[in-house]
Design goal:
- By secondary structure, the chain is mainly beta.
- The chain is built from two helices and 26 strands.
- The longest helix is centred in the first third of the chain and has 27 residues.
- The chain starts with a helix and ends with a strand.
- About 15% of the residues are buried.
């Protein structure tokens, strides 16, 4: 009740006090206009809303025009109507089923036996294993041969390869067993010799182990380790150990988009011995170690290639107590001269080659086990050439070079020993290679001017032709002749293939060569030259595919039945024919 009575009283007091203040204002304060200016701070709420459907005032030229379409129909002189029928297919050539395994057997005149086998297997764990066998033997003597002139060649190899995450590794074993006979007796002494007193057989045995690492996406590209052992029937032996590597050295930190420097290098160790020299006065020992480093850089720009580097060697001959350090430039350049028709190239290089008894026996199996083993220094090899395509079917490669070599090996016939020892006796008095029927190796400084030309012609997918001509002119420092090296060699090959038939042909021409004649029996000097006539040898290999697996083949060698000597007094077989069958299969 009290609160309700107070409220009217307070209202009356507030009303009269306001009236009193208003009267005081009118009498005491004068009126005036006050303008206040402040900075405008716009707010979103004060923005005018945009009209949803604004009115656009367009120019008259921008107004859309009505387009009227009309079609003019005219008669066509001829109407193409597709002819129904079989669609022609594209000729993709002969589709041949690929098999991983191969077996071939053959037999021919001269009682020749042939065997070739290749076995291969790859499993789902990326493991590969392979075995290869090859055997070729002639068991009948060559015409007019007083001594046994048969031969046999056997080689086998096996490998295992594993693909890992960062690299692939491979191990392999190789072996060879080759049998030859020193049947090339000099004609002037053949009547004095009793063939039954001569054991002319020579056997070469070769074993080789290989370990290889190939890296993926690494600056180390390849590492290779090879160890080989070579021996013969006269207890000569040779050991060769090679460690080679292939690296890439990056240059991106110096130049943007620069190529890597390729580095090839390695170390090789060669040691061996012969029980005696040709004089039978002492054994022959050799021990050589060589380290090499071959960096090079390749620059590419448009159609221009420049490869620049060097080949360096450090070698130590322990038996002769000599050491050498050699360095040679390695420069190669190539550029496109006119479209794809002609490209020019040129270069200069040098190298060091290690000769081995095993390599000599492959080139000339009739060497005597009394050799001197040295290294050949290729001081310079300057070359220039051209290559290209004359048209879509014919391409060529022509090269000329000047080569300077020290210690170039040359094969020369050994001199026969005393005539008194050649007369018929009850037993052998000479070693089987001392009748003037073996070869020695001599070394000389030789300069060679060489011209090489190669032409390839592809008539179609079924017919391919190739021709090579190699001309060499030699100048020796000490030797009176360039022994057993031809001036001209020519090779012409052809390949013809159809769905069922195939044929390969090869024609070889080798020009005249020269060997030594002696004034008397050993020891004596060379007093004349024996000329070996040039020859042409034609070979044909062909066959018929019965199906994808079975094939019959025939091989014709020395088709012209040419009588020639590959080395002095060593006749070759005449016309040879060998036929057989091959079988391809998968496990």
């Amino acid at each position: 009740m009290i609160k309700k009575s107070i409220l009217p009283v307070l209202f009356l007091v507030y009303f009269f006090s306001g009236m009193a203040q208003e009267k005081r204002k009118d009498t005491l304060v004068k009126t005036a206009i006050v303008s206040i200016t402040t900075k405008y701070n716009p707010e979103i709420s004060g923005a005018q809303k945009i009209t949803k459907k604004p009115t656009l005032n367009l120019l008259k030229n921008s107004l859309k025009k009505k387009v009227n379409y009309s079609i003019y129909s005219a008669p066509v002189a001829s109407t193409f109507i597709p002819k129904t029928g079989v669609v022609k297919g594209i000729n993709l050539g002969i589709k041949e089923t690929i098999y991983s395994n191969y077996l071939a057997l053959g037999y021919g005149n001269y009682s020749t036996t042939f065997l070739n086998a290749n076995l291969y297997k790859m499993n789902r764990f990326d493991n590969e294993i392979g075995i290869s066998l090859n055997y070729n033997a002639a068991n009948q003597n060559i015409r007019n041969s007083l001594l046994n002139s048969t031969f046999s060649n056997f080689d086998a190899s096996a490998f295992f390869k594993k693909e890992a995450r960062y690299f692939d590794w491979k191990v392999a074993l190789e072996t060879q067993n080759n049998k030859y006979n020193w049947f090339g007796l000099p004609t002037q002494n053949s009547s004095l010799i009793n063939p039954s007193t001569i054991d002319e057989l020579q056997t070469y045995s070769y074993f080789k182990g290989i370990g290889n690492l190939q890296f993926h996406d690494s600056y180390i590209k390849n590492i290779l380790l090879k160890t080989s052992f070579f021996t013969d029937r006269f207890d000569s032996n040779e050991i060769m150990i090679n460690f080679d590597y292939d690296l890439l050295f990056p240059l991106d930190f110096l130049f943007r988009n620069a190529n890597d420097i390729a580095i090839i290098g390695g170390v090789e160790f060669l040691t061996g011995k012969f029980n005696n020299n040709y004089q039978n006065s002492a054994t022959i020992n050799y021990k050589i170690m060589t380290a090499n480093l071959k960096p090079n850089y390749t620059f590419l720009k448009d159609n221009f290639i420049l490869k620049i580097g060097f080949n360096s060697f450090a070698t130590v001959d322990y038996e002769n107590k000599k050491s050498k350090f050699l360095i040679f430039p390695e420069i190669f350049t190539e550029t496109n001269i006119y479209s794809s028709y002609i490209s020019g190239f040129a270069g200069i290089t040098g190298n060091l080659h290690t000769n081995t008894y095993q390599k000599f026996s492959e080139i000339n199996p009739y060497v005597s086990p009394t050799l001197s083993i040295n290294q050949t220094i290729e001081n310079s090899n300057v070359y220039v050439g051209f290559k290209g395509n004359l048209n879509t079917k014919l391409n060529y490669n022509i090269r000329g070079s000047l080569i300077s070599e020290d210690n170039k090996p040359l094969f020369v016939r050994n001199n026969a020993k005393s005539n008194t020892n050649l007369i018929i006796t009850n037993g052998p008095v000479l070693k089987s290679y001392e009748y003037g029927n073996s070869f020695n190796v001599i070394y000389d400084a030789v300069k060679t001017t060489s011209i090489f030309a190669e032409f390839n012609y592809k008539y179609n997918k079924s017919l391919l032709l190739n021709a090579q001509v190699d001309f060499n002119s030699y100048t020796a420092k000490n030797a009176t002749e360039i022994w057993n090296l031809p001036t001209l060699q020519t090779t012409i090959t052809g390949k013809f293939t159809t769905k069922k038939w195939f044929a390969n042909t090869a024609l070889f021409h080798v020009s005249e060569r020269k060997d030594a004649l002696y004034s008397s029996t050993f020891p004596s000097n060379i007093n004349a030259v024996q000329k070996l006539k040039g020859f042409v040898d034609v070979n044909i290999y062909g066959g018929y595919h019965f199906n994808d697996k079975f094939t019959g083949f025939i091989r014709l060698n020395n088709l012209l039945n040419t009588k020639y000597q590959r080395f002095a007094n060593f006749e070759t077989q005449g016309f040879q024919v060998l036929g057989g069958i091959s079988y391809k299969f998968d496990f």
